Amino acid sequence: MERVPILKLGDILIVSIQIDLDDQSVLSLQEDLAETVVSTGARGVIIDITAVEIVDSFIGRMLSTIAAMTRMLDAETVVVGMRPAVAITLVELGLSLGGVRTALNLEKGVVMLEHARSAEG
Known about the structure:
By secondary structure, this protein is of the alpha/beta class. About 50% of the residues lie in helices and about 20% in strands. It contains four helices and five strands; from the N terminus they run ββαβαβαβα. Strands 1-2-3-4-5 form a five-stranded mixed beta sheet. Helix 3 (about 85-90) links the parallel strand 4 and strand 5. Helix 1 runs parallel beside helix 2 (about 55-70). The longest helix is centred in the N-terminal third of the chain and has 18 residues, at about 25-40. The radius of gyration is 13 Å and the shape is globular.
């Protein structure tokens, strides 16, 4: 089973989804991400879904679950790189991704997290 890599950039973790996710890989990602947030003290998580071409309710729930989990661990989550077709599909499925912030690309996601952090302080 392939694992999704988790990269560290300062106090931000970057998760770039480059593989087709199945139930087991999502559970592994959630577990790995929770452990990494705690062990690194990360304040932000960026999930890059640029390579995701097809989305279903499973992926939508996974993004919402990860965002809720990281919030409980004191880190904000931003999803970046969503293609128009993916956004349309999520809306058609009735998935609002409540609590999940989005940005067009990785750079804007980093800026969003930095801005949120400076607003806290």
